[in-house]
From TrEMBL:
SUPFAM superfamilies: Winged helix' DNA-binding domain. Pfam families: PadR (PF03551). Residues 19-94 form the Transcription regulator PadR N-terminal domain. It comes from the Bacteria. This is PadR family transcriptional regulator. Residues 190-212 are annotated as: Disordered. InterPro entries: Tscrpt_reg_PadR_N (IPR005149), WH-like_DNA-bd_sf (IPR036388), WH_DNA-bd_sf (IPR036390).
Length: 212
């Protein structure tokens, strides 16, 4: 790998590595096919890039020599450009995947919990309804994970994606358990609020409600 490739490697965003990772499995794929695969795999444990991001990263990867593309022939009604990983791209991707220092800690941005945190500005029924909606969406996502797991089963090339999907299954099951516990916590908070009307008891002194 040339020094220019090494320098560019360090500047690539995670989206580029994710797209290159999709190309690392056998076969050539169009940008649209890469998007469909990201929606049925990556989004369950990381995120799914927009189709515009995928094409932008494909252009970047081609410029670096990490990917190559070819247009379909006249046998197809609509011309398509299919992409494949190059040896240089596979080498760079393997190096990036082995670099645990770049993995970083998991990042949790839970929109529902942000609203629960601001529950003093809402009504208890509204908060419970939001949690119920979240549980329904999570059950739908879990069903999609199971569908993806069934699709990946018994395909040797997808053994490691299947492991990631299995982790996603456990994560969604845990999210359902946490949501049910949150409903119970909201019910208990509502009972306590009824026992202690607003203005009663010790008043906040302006400090943060948690140490730090």
């Amino acid at each position: 790998m040339t020094s220019s490739h090494i320098a560019n490697k360090q500047e690539l965003p995670p989206t580029a590595w994710a797209v290159l990772g999709l190309l690392s499995f056998p076969g050539e794929r169009t940008g649209y096919e890469l998007k469909k695969w990201a929606d049925s795999s990556l989004r369950f444990f990381y995120w799914s890039p927009a189709i515009s991001q995928i094409y932008a990263e494909l252009r970047r990867l081609e410029e670096l020599g990490y990917a190559s593309s070819a247009r379909s022939g006249p046998e197809e009604l609509r011309a398509k450009r299919r992409y494949a990983i190059t040896e240089a791209g596979r080498e760079a991707l393997a190096g990036w995947a082995a670099d645990t220092a770049e993995a970083g800690p998991p990042v949790l941005k839970h929109g529902l919990l942000l609203r629960i945190w601001l529950g003093h500005l809402s009504e208890p029924d509204r908060l419970r309804a939001m949690v119920a909606d979240h549980l329904e969406r999570t059950r739908g996502e879990l069903a999609a994970v199971w569908e993806a797991m069934a699709h990946a089963a018994d395909v040797p090339e997808w053994a490691f994606p299947a492991l990631a999907l299995r982790w996603s299954e456990r994560q969604h099951l845990a999210e359902l358990e946490l949501g049910e516990a949150l409903l119970a916590d909201l019910a208990e908070a509502g009972r306590q609020a009824g026992d202690h009307p607003a203005g009663a008891g010790r008043q906040a002194d302006g400090d943060a409600p948690t140490p730090g």
